[in-house]
Structure of SWIM zinc finger:
Amino acid sequence: MRERWGTDRVAALAPDRGSIRQAIGATDPTRWQAYGAGDRVVWGVYGTGRSARRVAVDLEGPAFTCTCAAQKKAGKTAGKTPCKHALALLLLWSRQLVPDDPAVPPFAADWLRARDAAASGERPRQRDEAAAAKRAAERHRRVCDGLAELDRWLRDRVRTGLAQTAGDAGVERMAARLVDAQAPGAANLVRRSAGTPASGSGWPARLLAEYARLRLLVRAYHRIEALPPERAATVRSRVGYTVTRDEVLARQGVRDRWVVHAIRDSADGRVETRRVWLRGADTGRWALVLLFAAGGTSLSSHPDAVLLPGTVLDADLHFYPGQPLRALVGVRHGDLGRAGAPEAGDVGAFLDDYAAALAEDPWLVEWPAVLTGVPVSGSGWELHSGDGALPLELSGVDIWPLVATSGGEPVPVAGEWTGSALRPLTCWHGDRAVRLGTEPEPARRWGWW
């Protein structure tokens, strides 16, 4: 029988972190009528009666089939992107809970034969362009309806006053409505606003800014046909349209010597996420690579866990359409190397770069930074850097290694700018990178790019 995959490889197939969370909820063996694994296919039947779902995974693709609604709505990505049932089945298989069984049931065997016939050209399948266009139009209609409701909701919130928003369950109801409308990205942005009324002094202005970005997304999507292609791709990604891993890797890669400047770990239930910030030594371009671990595995077991601050990787990175930072690692052109301290800028130049990025994508949550500065404590911690100072966000950060490394002198500091504060993640003592992160913090619910 075929060697079983690790759970990290299974997690890498998921189109987003929410899919992994849903899949973990479906890994209770008592919910499965039956399952088995042949040399090529893993199959299972989830649920009972009319709600039973027949699931199969072709390990040579991999390719996926399921009788659930998610696969039926997937359109052109059906079979390429796993649903929660397929991910759950693979997680069970990777944990040795699915027994080897060479007797493949008819539904899985028929599906494999159809795939083989299509691949050999015996029964060439013609893409049903009309059906695909119909599905796309139906989703567009649903998204438009959901965003129109969001627009009314925003108007009502402003009209009735922000004082009533604290502790209001209406945020989750609106987010759930957007998920139903197939706009999960917009739902994440709505959920992001839930904690703002409890964020301290000045929260009304911050909440209005978040509402303004939501309204901008509504207006942009209604005009998406008139937008330039790259801007339209950004709007689609923020609304919640996804692309598969294969589609990203099919895009033109950017080869460079990618230097790792910072990493940040977070945890959301049983899913751990690592954000790896890299910058091209030649192009100067920033990139964000995400690593996931689920089902009891550790991030340290991920094949890209070797990407740590101070290392450099000669590789092709493939960037997601409509997202200026997120990328996948493609072909590697050599072994991992070591890098010295990075070239660091000042506050003024960094804020100019951030403003330019924000003009291209007003819904940016975080932006990478490398600055030379000194940590200074007053009413709160700040990083003083040449012509200015930035407040520091210290959740999940240990400030004292930075203070000790600096000793009152400027040092290079890499981190994430949240729009209002800098979260320092790495500093340098000579050419040695010093991580500033503490234990993984709970992951935010509104985004991961």
Q: What stands out?
A: The chain has 13 helices and 17 strands. The longest helix spans residues 129-160. The CA atoms of residues 97 and 424 lie 42 Å apart. The chain has four domains: 7-120, 130-239, 247-338, 347-442.
